[in-house]
Amino acid sequence: SCGFFAGFGDIFPAIRMLCLDIDYDVRSAMCGSLANISQSIGELGTVKLLIPEINELLQDEEQEVRNAAITVLVDICPHLSKDIISQMLSPTIWPYLDVVICEKPSFTLVTVAKIIGRLGVNLADVMDEQRKEWYVRYFIKLCKQSHILNGTVENGGAEPAIVEITLDSINSKQTDVRDSTAYLCAYNFPAVCYNVGSRLVLESGLLDTLTSLSSHHHYSVKRVLAAGVHEIAKILGNDSRLLLPTYQTLLEDSNTDVLIALIPNLSTALKSFVSPPLKGQCPTIGLPDLIPALLAQEEHIGKTREWRAYTSLIEAWSGLTNILTPEQIHQKFAPRLVKLVSSNVVLPVKRAVLKTLVKFLHTCKYAHQRHDLTIQIVKGLSRGKKFNQRVLFVELCYLILDKFSKKFFKEYCFTPALLLINDPTPIVRIQSSTLLPHLKSQLKMPSDRPLLQQLEASSRRSLMSERNKDVLSHIQRAVIELDQGDVKLDSEPDPDDRKREEEQNMFIVREERHDHVKGRTSLPEIGSLDINRKPSSRKSSISSLSDHTEHHSGRARRKMSHAVMSLSSRRASTTGSQSATTRRASMPTPHLVDVANKARKTSSVKLKSGHK
Fold it and tell me: What is the mean pLDDT of residues 297-306?
């Protein structure tokens, strides 16, 4: 730095000449480059050469040059020591700001609003409590330079034309000065709160200014405020509940951009509002005042074409489990999501809904609520009239496999998933065939032998009756994986499944509703199985499975009875106790692979004869 400063004397005359150029654009551009030069030459060169030039430019007759000078004066503060800032910069910056706020609104006001956040950060070491109080009062005055002040609109109540405000439009002076000032004040609001601390924010009336900005007539101001309100809540800590009226106002806004700006940090903001209360204050439970606003936000965005934002909002709802009460989620949000599965037409939105519903189920604190919601979801998807609903049920099965225990999956999803292998729509049969190996991995022997027999019978029936080449190829691959799969024994420990079951039941509140839950049957509408029944009940299970299959698929009817009788005869011929040491429960002889090859030949002969 010293060596560079020694050679800097050769080019400094050229820099000084540009700072004194007759064209104000040249002076402004040169002034904007002084911050980078200050970082290169160090503190000594900045104090001796650059600060005098900046002070001279601060008195320039052109407004743009003065704006560039005050900006550079704030930007060079991180490269200077505390003593230099307090002795040379502070006496220049504070009086200049006092003059600007008293003048007629101009673009200089916009410049000050742009740097007000960096000003507090860069000069934090030299600001005492008195100066911080002045800083807050100055910021409040700056915010009041917008069109809306305490809920009143200037210019005789006539609302100006709404033009989007961005940093580019502000720099090019395409927007109104007061709207630009309000936009930049809303942008720097979290930085100002961070600089002065939560005590001054509460005592100075800064929250009233925040409320005024949240009701500004320009949507860009409210949008940038919505994007940073969660940072203000973090700074306030336990007092963040004071922001609830402002946050509710933003949630109820009619502009889509404002509502979308709230989505990325929705869970963060809501968590800060339910922080532990102070002494003498009542705790905030469940945020009941915000629930109508949250539902209105979802309804508004759902009516637009912003499906990506809608997907993000549904995913953000998964964080509500740590914020709202179980009753609020079960009564207000879960029904809305269940309805979206069948009504919405966007696939990413539906997948987000399924993930959020599974999260609601996983963290549900009441067994009866989990039971009712699971039945409603499984029944609505597995028996859906549209094929895409039944395809979504396959995706739901994968989500439940990742989150829940084997017992939960077998109780609610095993039989509906098995029935889809005979669905009349080929794409549903293809998707459901991929589930077959996973279905087998959920079983344990010998307690789940009836389920294994159903799985084998359904697989054989599909192989013998399928005519679609694409579906048949998928089923054959699934059968090969199914034949190679292993089934664990009841006596064999399964730490992963035990961990999932513990997580699944961790949120259950044990109350006196045992009789209420005990009297319920697991998915009676879908015909789920009783896992603890004897193997002799297998015939009735298969018959109910056949009835449901005949309802959905006519082509499987011809070979169903033959497959069941064939399976029964083979089972009767191979009676005997299964060895307790056998870890692999393979298919009975003949293997399903042989049946698959036979089915392939039979289907090819039928297709050729039909073609002729």
Answer: 94
Give 424's DSSP letter: S
Per-residue pLDDT tens over the stretch 441-477: 888 888 889 998 899 898 888 888 888 999 999 999 9
CA distance 201 to 194: 9
What's the mean pLDDT in 235-262?
A: 93
Bridge pairing between strands 444-445 and 148-149:
unpaired
Can you point out the beta strands (E) in 137-262? 148-149, 152-153
- Residues paired with residue 489 on neighbouring β-strands, in sequence order: 445
Q: Which two tokens stand for residue 159?
A: 């609302």
Residue 32 buriedness (CB in 10 A; 0-12 / 13-18 / 19+)? middle
**Which residue do the tokens 């306030």 mark?**
236
User: Taking phi first (over 0 means left), then psi (-120 to 50 degrees means alpha), and beta for anything else, what does residue 386 get?
Assistant: beta
Q: Which residue has the tokens 């998707």?
A: 431
Alpha carbons 372 and 380: distance in angstroms, whole number? 12
Q: Would you tell me how many other CB atoms lie within 10 Å of the CB of residue 534?
A: 9
* Nearest partner of 523 among 413, 407, 422, judged by Cα: 413
Contact predicate 467/607, CB 8 Å: yes
> Roughly how many angstroms between the first and final C-alpha of the chain, as a whole number?
91
